[in-house]
Amino acid sequence: MLSPRGLSGLARNIxxxxxxxxxxxxxxxxxxxxxxxxxxxxxxxxxxxDAVNGSLDLYTWEHLPxxxxxxLLETRNRLPIMLPEExxxxxxxxxxxxxxxxxxxxxxxxxxxxxxxxxxxxHVPYWAAFRGHGIRAHIAVLDAVRRxxxxxxxxxxxxxxxxxxx
Length: 166
Description:
Helix content is 25%, strand content 37%. By secondary structure, it is an alpha+beta fold.
């Protein structure tokens, strides 16, 4: 997926250069149990908010990840947690509210959101492909869990981390 074949792969190699290396990295997410009350219905959801700066889209799980669905990994390829915990709770509620309103403002009645943080965090794995010609480098990022290419916010987050002094 990071090095597509065919015409799209050829075009990407011409513009951005061939893949020079691939690395895994991990973005920390805080998990929230969110209760939504709307029009007399109450639903429960599990969302993850990136704990770096809260700029990424919410991560969604069908249920709280169980112990056998995660594993412990020691690595230095993890972005630091920088978002204050209290800001995360407000940001999750705001992002969920925006999602509900996007589905139709006129469907919203007797609306409330309660977001409760789940202790700890989870680090979601990503793959970064570094492409380039000469000294110029381009980055492509793949969410290793959902198997989908990520956009500019994840690339920018990775770029800032790579260029910061650790």
